[in-house]
Specification:
The complex is a heterodimer of chains A (about 240) and B (about 500). Chain A is of the alpha/beta class. Chain A has helices at about 45-50, 75-80, 95-105, 110-125, 140-155, 170-185, 200-205, 225-230, 235-244, and strands at about 5-15, 20-30, 35, 60-65, 65-70, 80-85, 160-165, 190-195, 210-215, 215-220. Chain B folds into 3 domains: about 20-115 and about 220-275, Periplasmic binding protein-like II (D-Maltodextrin-Binding Protein, domain 2), CATH 3.40.190.10; about 120-210, D-Maltodextrin-Binding Protein, domain 2 (3-Layer(aba) Sandwich), CATH 3.40.190; about 285-485, MetI-like fold, CATH 1.10.3720.10. In chain B, α14 packs across α21 (about 455-480). Classes of the chains: A alpha/beta (about 240), B mainly alpha (about 500).
């Protein structure tokens, strides 16, 4: 079995006096999709930000792609980690092509490689090449989401972080994007960490599940295994309320 | 890159202006008719002898001219002996010994031109003749004359109080606004008032100036005040004008300008010809070339100041915008500069930078800073935090975040700020003429001195047009640089 793409050991984080995360020990399997679920305020977004260094841990070790994040060159590391957030967060002054290819240009990819990768991603996400010259405001919500995934995947990162990326679109569009995401995850050998408050989304997209409550991991494992054996009554109620 | 080259070009243009191979004599003047005219006479006289001359006329007042002379910004201007003792030397020298105290300051008084521009009492001409009054002491014989003095003259110790006791005058004068006194005389409402002895208006109204036969009024003898390091040949040339102009003549020459509406250059040229001096070979400047030169200088001043303000304001805004406290202090400081009236700010620059282009550019730069800084900080702080987070999370370096996200999104507001600064600068730069920087303020300052609306408009109209053209140019720049949906007026 390949080494974990991300490993947390004894990690805790406080904002002032508020404890956000405590005693986090976790290893995320490479080339799988792991969903981190929990109520708002459970610390799931902070957990994600620890991975790309937007937040630093108070104690413990965070290891990403084989390097301890404390000693890593953050700029270099972040370029090996795709990142997409709620809403599409496309840059409004750039058209779709410029948004997706910005980082590739900055790191100096040759033009041909950029074009090839860009066209491949559009095809994978079923985005019409004619949309390439449009500004974000000229795209539908679903198209923006898909473009945002293309941007995150442009440099072929081994790791992709998704911070509730699909929560701002309507249910029908979301179902479509889920399908596109699955195409992507099948086509590329990428480790995905998906933060969501939607358990149904987590079950659809992920194979692994991590459940956070009040900053602590209360259960982790393969989705099926967790659903089959909820660790406590709270988790059981969570499943009942969201999955029916 | 393109921008950098443009700024270099602007700086070169500015620096290349005053640089010439051999020594150019810089003649200054204060901002009233007589001073302009005397400056022009000396300039043409020097040119007639082959000197190269630069004119820096219409400098604010005594202190600005003096400061300019001491610092070497100008080589000479015409000053009055009374002003030298009272204002420049603060009364610690007698009028007959100006040379020694001035020498300590590196200056030298050249021989007097021949007239005194001091206080004088005047009567309507025919009335003076009818009453046979030609001297102030004659007034004693006519206690019934109605006398009205300007308020200042009534109070000054070297005015009415001293005059009355020196001559033993029995009259009881009333106060009158100086601007109205001549009209009152013409209509016969008053008989005697005070005036400056070489005022061209005395000629216009045919007033008689009474002789100060007891020598009461302090002397304000006009003389060229020059830097000691002026070449001796130049001093000698200027000195050929000594004693050539008496008060009557000066009054007539002034009148040719204020009453006859002739130009300084023409009146000066006629005077020199009458005196048998060679004509200045410098071709008469047309109003067109003059306008072009003023406009060009105006553009230089504003363009250089604005470029500096952008070069400093923009990076400063980027630097401080992340810290609320830093941006506040910087904005307060820039705002404080903005509250200083522009003419005062210009005056404050003189002790630091002398006169000429430099203090004007510094003042305009300080004025342009606030709009640019404020626009930059406001625009940067209002960039969506989610976009910032994504930019960091994607692995953009700090500079790349600024270059590819923050600046492009801030651009519409920043450009609006630069546009505001540009228009303010173009307006404020008209004041630069007061410190000898030239520009479109030059005809305005001269026009104010001559009370000539046409001349004022020759500066004001091009300045207004320049402001409009600038607005249009910035609209063009916005259209080129900013996608339609991010321009002002859209969301």
């Amino acid at each position: 079995m390949s080494p974990p793409a991300v490993r947390f050991a004894g990690v805790s984080k406080r904002y002032g006096t508020a404890e956000v995360l405590a005693d986090i020990d976790l290893a995320l399997t490479a080339a799988r999709t792991t969903a981190i679920v929990g109520e708002s305020g459970s610390g799931k977004s902070t957990l994600l930000k620890l991975i790309n260094g937007l937040v630093q841990a108070d104690t413990g070790v965070v290891e990403v792609l084989g390097t301890a994040i404390e000693t890593a060159d953050l700029i270099d590391l972040r370029r090996r980690i795709g990142y997409a957030v709620q809403g599409s967060a496309l840059f409004p002054h750039l058209d779709l092509r410029a948004n997706v290819t910005l980082l590739a240009r900055l790191v100096g990819w040759p033009e041909a490689r950029i074009r090839e990768r860009f066209e491949h991603l559009l095809e994978l996400m079923e985005l019409d090449p004619e949309l390439a010259g449009r500004y974000p405001y000229e795209l539908s919500g679903g198209q923006q989401q898909r473009a945002s995934l293309c941007r995150a995947m442009m440099l072929e990162p081994p790791l992709l972080l998704l911070d509730e990326p699909f929560s701002a679109v309507d249910p029908i569009t979301r179902a479509g994007i889920h399908a596109h995401f699955q195409r992507l995850a099948e086509a590329e050998p990428v480790t995905v960490v998906l933060v969501t408050h939607d358990l149904r989304e987590a079950m659809t997209l992920a194979s692994e599940l991590v459940i956070l409550r009040n900053g602590r991991i209360i259960q982790a494992g393969a989705c099926d295994a967790v659903v089959a054996a909820p660790a406590d009554a709270w988790i059981e109620r969570l499943f009942q309320s969201q999955l029916g | 890159m393109k921008r950098v080259r443009w700024i270099q070009a602007a700086l070169l243009l500015l620096l290349a202006g005053p640089v010439v191979a051999e020594r150019t004599l810089v003649v200054g003047s204060k901002n009233f008719t007589e001073s302009y005219l005397l400056g022009e006479m000396i300039a043409q006289r020097l040119e007639g002898e082959g000197w190269r001359v630069e004119r820096r006329f219409g400098l604010g007042g005594t202190l600005i001219c003096y400061e300019a002379l001491v610092s070497g910004e100008i080589d000479l201007y015409v000053e009055y002996s009374g002003t030298i003792t009272e204002v420049i030397l603060s009364n610690d020298a007698a009028q007959d010994d100006l040379a020694a105290p001035l020498a300590e300051r590196g200056l030298e008084p050249l021989p007097e031109l021949g007239f005194d521009n001091t206080y004088a009492l005047v009567l309507e001409g025919r009335r003076a003749e009818a009453l046979a009054i030609s001297r102030i002491s004659d007034l004693r014989e006519h206690p019934g004359l109605r006398i009205a003095f300007s308020h200042e003259f009534l109070r000054r110790q070297d005015g009415w109080p001293g005059l009355r006791s020196r001559y033993g005058l029995p009259h009881d004068p009333v106060g009158i606004e100086h601007g109205l006194a001549y009209q009152a005389m013409v209509r016969g409402r008053i008989d005697v008032t005070d005036a400056y002895s070489t005022d061209g208006d005395l000629e216009r109204y045919g007033f008689t100036v009474l002789e100060d036969d007891r020598g009461f009024f302090p002397r304000y003898a006009a003389l060229p005040l020059v830097r000691k390091d002026l070449p001796d040949a130049a001093k000698a040339t200027i000195a050929t004008l000594a004693g050539r102009i008496d008060a009557d003549r000066m009054r007539r020459l002034n009148a040719e300008i204020v009453v006859g509406n002739r130009s300084f250059a023409a009146v000066a040229a006629d005077f020199l010809a009458e005196e048998g001096f060679p004509a200045s070979p410098v071709a008469a400047v047309t109003w067109r070339s003059e306008l072009a030169a003023h406009t060009l200088r105006h553009l230089q001043l504003t363009a250089v100041a604005l470029s500096l303000a952008v070069l400093i304001g923009l990076p400063l805004g980027v630097l401080v915008h992340r810290s609320l406290r830093a941006s506040r202090s910087v904005l307060y400081a820039a705002g404080l500069l903005q509250t200083i009236p522009s003419i005062a700010l210009l005056a404050l620059m003189i002790p630091l930078f002398g006169i000429g282009v430099l203090p004007a550019i510094v003042a305009l730069f300080l004025y342009s800073l606030l709009p640019i800084l404020r626009a930059t900080v406001t625009a940067l702080t209002s960039v969506d935090p989610t976009l910032r987070r994504i930019a960091v999370g994607m692995g953009l370096t700090s500079w790349q975040q600024v270059r590819h996200l923050l600046l492009p999104l801030a651009l519409p507001n920043v450009l609006a700020g630069i546009r505001t600064a540009a228009v303010i600068s173009i307006g404020t730069a008209t004041l630069a003429a007061f410190v000898g920087a030239g520009g479109l303020g030059q005809p305005i300052v001269t026009g104010l001195a001559l009370n000539d609306p046409n001349l004022i408009l020759q500066g004001a109209v091009p300045a207004a047009l320049l402001a409009i053209v600038t607005e249009l140019a910035f609209e063009g720049i916005e259209r080129r640089l900013i996608p339609a949906h991010l321009r002002h007026g859209s969301v």
